[in-house]
Amino acid sequence: MPLDGKIAIVTGGAGGIGYAIAERFAREKAKVVIADVDTEKGARAERDLGRFGDVQFVKADVGRRLDVHNLVAATIDSYGEIDILVNNAGIAHGADFLDVTEEDFDRVLAVNLKGSFLTGQAVARQMVDRVKAGGPAGSIVNMSSINAVLAIANQLPYSVSKGGVKQLTKAMALSLAPFGIRVNAIGPGSIRTDMLASVNADPAARERILSRTPLGRIGETAEIAAIAVFLASDEASYITGQTIYADGGRLPL
Ligand code: NAD
Fold it and tell me: What are the Ketoreductase domain coordinates in residue numbering (predicted)?
């Protein structure tokens, strides 16, 4: 098992893709800290995934520096070190450029981009200290999106944030490569989660997506979790700075 005994933080792990990643990690015998703003879903995830091994929920808003500090401190308190971070927490907001408010723009950027920066930096500092002390390197996986490179008119703040995550991934990878710490991103297409609820409820929107997806179906959260396991593990030991798109062939091939 490539993640056996590794200590992993998964942000936004109480639901959707993050939950699937936390579940795969726990099944692979990693110790998992789920960070999420949703206390109810977080407590449920801790309970339900606890049957696979060591899973803890910590309430944290990744856009708030103090919460991120507390998250890292709680993880170090429990396990003494961190091997893996998955910066998965994210929110979407649908609005065209001319209608986006400053508040909506700030809110989406604060969670999706600044949250990945704050959490990535706080965890990377722990990882670098461990390498300097002669310990092993770690791996960071950010959650981007096909929207990083595919502009969708009514998803402006979201697309901008995910483009930022793609570039953040490269910059973090460069900075952390001298320590052997790898940083990559996953760029999902349309995956069946609550974030896609409006699409699922609208047959025309669903049909539009499917018609642009060569594999002809919406993706499953487990299909993203499988990539997270690979990127987090030593199996991906020569991969850093990359964004791996899992989109059923939607981006131009
Ligand atoms: P989701 O809404 O189902 O789950 C997101 C989770 O993040 C929830 O548990 C939520 O409570 C948590 N969260 C929200 N704000 C947070 C914050 N400030 N701090 C901590 N936790 C927070 O969404 P999802 O579809 O599972 O999306 C997960 C990630 O994948 C996001 O970054 C999203 O942008 C990305 N993504 C999703 C899709 C898709 O089609 N579902 C496609 C591309 C990228």
Answer: 6-189
The dihedral built from the CA positions of residue 229, 234, 235 and 236, taken in this order, carries a sign that is positive
pTM, rounded to two decimals: 0.98
Answer whether 131's CB lies under 8 Å from 109's CB: no
Alpha carbons 172 and 125: distance in angstroms, whole number? 12
- Distance (angstroms) between ligand 1 centre and the Cα of 238 equals 28
Give catalytic status of residue 245 as yes or no: no
Cβ atoms of residues 168 and 118 within 8 Å: no
Q: Tell me the per-residue pLDDT of 105-152, one tens digit each, with 9 for 90 and over.
A: 999 999 999 999 999 999 999 999 999 999 999 999 999 999 999 988
Nearest CA to ligand 1 atom 34: 90
- The domains of the chain, with CATH numbers, are 7-246 (3.40.50.720)
Which tens digits make up the pLDDT trace of 50-109? 999 999 999 999 999 999 999 999 999 999 999 999 999 999 998 889 999 999 999 999
Question: Atom 24, ligand 1: which residue's CA is nearest?
Answer: 16
| Closest ligand 1 atom, residue 192 Cα | 41
ipTM, interface predicted TM-score of the complex = 0.99
